[in-house]
Amino acid sequence: MKKTISLRRMFMRRKVLGFVDEQMLSVYRDRGVVVKDEGINFNKTAEDRSIYQLVEPGWFVVNRMKAWQGSVGVSGLRGIISGHYICFEPIHHENDRFLHYYLRSPKLTAHFRSISRGVRPGQIEIDNDQLADTRIQLPDLDEQKRIADFLDDRVSRIDRIIAARREQAERIRKLFEADRYRDLLGMHAGETVRTSLPWAPLVGADRPVRRLSQMAAMGTGHTPSKSNPEYWVDC
C-alpha cells in the first residue's frame, strides 16, 4: 500500500560549514550528486573552502537555480558542496536509492519547474516553502528496494554500454587518424625510406623529402611606400 507524505516530514534543512578537508561534490543533471570534476564543471572551487556545506550519504541536495532541469539528488557520498545548493538531512526511514530515482523522475522535475520563479527562463529559483510542501507517494520498503535494485541494474548496464561505445569510438578515431597519416606520407604503397624528420621518420619510397626552398622561391613582404599614391586606394 502506498502512502503520501510531504518532503517537509522527510527532510530537515541543514547548513553545516567548516569541513574544509572533505572531497568536493557537485550536482549534475544526468547523475545527481557526484564527486566534482573540474574538467566538466566550470564553476571553480573557491580558495576559502569553509563556505562549503557538508553533505552526508542520504542527504537530499537541490540546486535551487536548476532544480527545474533535474539538478537534484539524494547523495550516496560524504563531502562538501557549494553554498548555493540547499541541503536537507533525512529524518525518515525510507530507501535512499529509491528516493534518489523518484526525486529525479520526469514527474518530479516537472513539478520543480512549476514551483520555480524568476525573471528569465534560464534563471528561475525554486520556492523553498513549496518544495517542502511537495507531496510524494511511497510504496512499502520492500517494494522501494526492489524498484531501486532494478533501476541500479539497468543504469549499470547502460553505463557499461556507453563506456564501451566511447572506447569503440576512440579506437575508430585513432585508426582513422593513423590511416590518414599513412596516406599523407605515401606509406600504403609498400616500400618506405627513413628520413631525419622527427614527425615523419618513414615516408613512402615515391615521396622524396625536399627542402621547401628547393620547391618554391621564398621572400619577405613589406609595406608599400605611401609616397606612391598608386599603391594606395581610399576605401
Plain-language structure description:
This protein has helices spanning 96-103, 106-114, 128-132, 141-184; strands spanning 3-6, 11-14, 25-28, 32-35, 53-55, 60-63, 72-74, 79-81, 85-90, 116-120, 123-126, 135-138, 192-194, 202-204. By secondary structure, it is an alpha+beta fold. The chain has 4 helices and 14 strands. A hairpin with a 7-residue loop joins strand 13 (192-194) and strand 14. The N and C termini lie far apart (82 Å). It has a 4-stranded antiparallel β-sheet with strand order 2-9-6-7. A two-stranded antiparallel ribbon has the order 1-12. A two-stranded antiparallel sheet has the order 3-4.
List keywords for this structure.
235 residues, alpha+beta, two-stranded antiparallel ribbon, 14 strands, elongated
What portion of the residues fall into strands of 2 or more residues?
15-25%
Q: SSE order in H/E notation?
A: EEEEEEEEEHHEEHEHEE
Give the spatial strand order of the biggest sheet: 2-9-6-7
Q: Tally the helices: what do you get?
A: 4
Decide which structural class fits the backbone.
alpha+beta
Cα(first) to Cα(last) distance is 82 Å
Helix content: 25-40%
Q: Report the average pLDDT across residues.
A: 88
Please describe the biggest sheet, giving its number of strands, its sense, and whether it closes into a barrel: 4 strands, antiparallel
Oligomeric state of this protein: single chain
Secondary structure tally: strands: 14
Cα shape: elongated
